[in-house]
Riboflavin synthase (Streptomyces lycii), 214 residues
Amino acid sequence: MFTGIVEELGEVVAVEHIDGDGGPQPQPGGAARLRLRGPLVTEDAGHGDSIAVNGVCLTVTDTARGEFTADVMAETLNRSVLGSLVPGSRVNLERPMALGGRLGGHLVQGHVDGTGVISERIPGEQWEIVRITLPPGLARYVVEKGSITVDGVSLTVVEAAGDSFTVSLIPTTLGLTTLGIKQPGDPVNLEVDVLAKYVERLLGAGAHTAEAAK
């Protein structure tokens, strides 16, 4: 479990595309093995630990000299923007929240629900407003003043529309995460508040039970 408070702005060192048998594949597709640089998040990381990369929970397979490797399944590549990473890409990195630690953002699973696209950036004196498109099916989970995770960053929704939403980015977020460098047209990973999904599921189950009791 994560909090959406990015600890480090890391960098992709290498991307190796592999086929279903684990062999090299010349063209992108199937699974991939990422090697990323993140001295802070790797200082206490080992084989089997979790690190969120742009909001995607990945399992560490190896660490060395401030770098770590992680294997990414085809399902993850298809549902997130990790498939577009290349050497030199900057990424948001976060270690899991320690039990008893402060929950600075909100409960983030590291399970991406879909991808959006930055459609507009409106700069201001102290902050910047960013509008992001919503894929079909996610709009019902996004509410004004609610929480959403964008590329692993816990943010508060300013305005929730039918097919998009806006967030306000403070200088710290702009300077310490990828959201400060992404431009209109760039895709981002989205994870909606898991509590909203559970509530929807429970209410749906309750409605079916009531209907069956008639």
About this structure: The radius of gyration is 18 Å. Helices lie at 39-42, 74-79, 171-176, 194-213. The chain has two domains: 8-94, 114-199. DSSP finds four helices and twelve strands in the chain.
